[in-house]
Amino acid sequence: LAAATHPTMASSTGTNANLPSGIEICTTIPDILYLPELIFGGLVWILVAATLVVPANPQGWVMFVSIFCFIMTFIWMVVFACGAHNNRDSWAAADCLYHGIAAFFYLSASVSLAKVTLDLNDGTGSKSYKLDIAAVVFSYVATLLYFIHTILSAIRWKSS
Question: Which UniProt keywords apply (predicted)?
Fold first, then answer.
């Protein structure tokens, strides 16, 4: 009880009520964004994989980013859900850092995917082109979600 009411003792034990664990990650901001990040990132992964991956270099980067961020976000969500983030001050900083990197990666992948999609437009409105357009839209949505998560995580980290 004394550690919860005395600020210096609370910070020395690493108990910061700002980071959720368990089911609370589905009800707190910014952690509620994990599921939309997984959904939109997964859609980018699926849509790019369903089209002709030409040219390989930019599309390969898009695939790497979507798979990497999907797996890392899932692991990050599980860590928070299981309550494995004992040193909460460093976890708040790591949460902000990870989502910032993910936002930067997704922005670079989104721009690359948009450029490739525009270059591949043959004017016929093919199924592959429509899938690429959907992938571009979902990629920018994922970028926005990761960016918002970064800002909200930074606010949470700085307020702790």
Answer: Membrane, Transmembrane, Transmembrane helix
Q: Render the burial of 41-74: b for 16+ CB within 10 Å, e for the rest.
A: bbbbbebbeebeeeeeebbebbbebbbbbbeebe
Measured CA to CA in angstroms, residue 84 lies from 70, 81, 91 at distances of: 19, 8, 10
Residue position matching structure tokens 């702790």:
160
* Alpha carbons 54 and 56: distance in angstroms, whole number: 5
pTM of this structure:
0.81
The crossing angle, in degrees rounded to 10, of helices 56-82 and 34-49 is 150
Tens of pLDDT, residue by residue over 51-72, are 876 776 788 899 999 999 999 9
How is the chain split into domains, by residue range? 46-159
Pairwise CA distance, residues 45 & 138, whole Å: 10
